[in-house]
Sequence to fold (663 residues):
Amino acid sequence: MASVMQMARLMQGNEAVAEAAIAAGVNFYAGYPITPSTEIAEFMARKLPLTGGVFIQMEDEISSMAAIIGASLTGAKAITATSGPGFSLMQENIGYAVMAEVPCVIINVMRLGPSTGMPTAPGQGDVMQARWGTHGDHPVIALCPSSVTESYELTVRAVNLAERFRTPVILLLDEVVAHLRERIILPAQEDIKLINRVKPAGNDSSYLPYRPIDNGIPPMSDIGGGYRHNVTGLVHDERGIPSNDPGVAGALISRLMTKVADYTGEIYMSDGYLLEDAEIAVVAYGAVARSARRAVKEARQDQIAAGLWRPVSLWPFPGKEIEELSRRVRCIIVAEMNSGQMAGEVERHAGGRCPVVSLAKVNGELIAPGEIHRRIREVYTGA
Amino acid sequence: MPDVIKEYFRPGSLPHMWCPGCGTGIVLQSFLRAIHHLGYRRDDVAVVGGIGCSARAVSYIDFNTVHTTHGRALAFATGIKLAKPDLQVFVIMGDGDAAAIGGNHLIHSARRNIDLNVLVINNSVYGMTGGQCSPLTPTGSRTATSPYGSLERQLNIVNLVAAAGGTFVARSTAYHAKLTGELIEQGVANKGFSFIEVISQCPTGFGRKNGPSDPAAMLQWQKDKAVMAEKYGKLPEEEAKGKFPIGVLFRDEAPDYTDIYLGMSSRAGRGKESGGKDND
Fold:
């Protein structure tokens, strides 16, 4: 068995994502180079051929997304990585993966947008795009790490959730976490719990590719696996055949929503720090949560009862925890590198029971601990 | 329709959605006859379509079928083929699907020479949306979005695919149903990117505005204007005018991308096992 020293590495977030993807059983990567996510593609280009997997650099992000869906349909565990402009290009096919229920993982390393923005500067402006970027009503699972170790853990989890729920899962890193180098102790492969999609039993004449079983999800048959069927982005019946029937359409869209909504307990993830007696709660995620943690600690030294609540599953959003917080804190401060995208979500769940203050920064700089500390003091003194 | 071909349709999938006189059904029958003749197990065949009248064919037929997004069928097919190289992968697209929104994927799939068998059913217009002009609409034609005649030059899609690196490039028409099937079989025998343009008729979206609108007359036009490639090459310039070559138009020898990738992967894997540096 490998010792801790053997398993310890100094690694950046992007590398941890790529390492974790291989450990999670990913055997197909299609992507297009884009800052600040490119290290993931470079790592996969080196590693996948060695493990019998496939790496392909596609002609753009649209085709990258299409290729991973195609690969996943044959039974592969497939991922891609990108940043804002590429994430925008992927949206249509992300919707296809939702509609056709194709497991896959999209890693989006957030940089300052809109448009080309500042390619090397961090941002968190894609959290609402992750939620609503593709058209139509749809479920989404999006996870957001704030350390290198967590980037590793959440990549494994993202691959597992995609397989569990037959849906695309988005991993939202920001540029700071992606390029941050930290010590990480890699888990032994046998300690990593992997989830594989449920497949239909052999020779099941009653199998229908879009009829869910008791776990809420239809078993998935690989292309070439003997259950020939149609896969389409059109509204379709349980056989996968296109339909214009409003009854079929309504049932399908609501099933797509509830297959995630009914199992949020398996998805929700959050983290608290000094929240038990907190009067002021800071909400932050990704790299900003690191600054917030420091700010909370410093506020405590000033005898201000501050705490940190960090959503890890941004979507579905663990809003019940905000509801509960809003009943016992004086104020919630939401610190994020965008114009207050999650502040709106927090406000919705706080339901007016306490004020929600947005600390928004959109200049390509990480929010510093001092900025959050100052805001905590201002709120505390009522300034 | 002969019973042997009927069997390739999914139960309940007929009647189809194509207009009376449409050429897509004829081309689809050529396709199914070719597959039948090749004797593939249906489980081993994947048929990928984009969006449009032609691509809708995939939902009707009893294979592993993937009806994708507009223009992206080749990119989906690339993922399928690379992840499971043993599958026979066919791609059916229309002219707008393949040449306009999917043009970039067409170039790069041909450049990779990945082993896909591509059928582009060219009816000169976007049929599904009501007959708008496409990159393959003949210049000057009236369509729903070129009411005064289309201004843009028509893309020569077979030359494009040959220039990009496709290793089997052919053309047929809906009228030449037997030839279409033969070309599909020859394309399958080519391990690499095989591309067949099938010129078809859209009486509703193209014929009514430009004449003739009678499907039989449109098929007659295909018969009159299409000349087998060998013969076409020998026609005097005057006689070649207004005609177009059909049959195999271009062939080349190049390794298939899937084979190249698997070769590289196996060499790289061996290098690792024999103590080669795995630079992580």
Remarks:
- Chain A is about 40% helix and 20% strand.
- The two ends of chain A are 57 Å apart (CA to CA).
- Residues 62 and 90 of chain A are 5 Å apart (CA to CA).
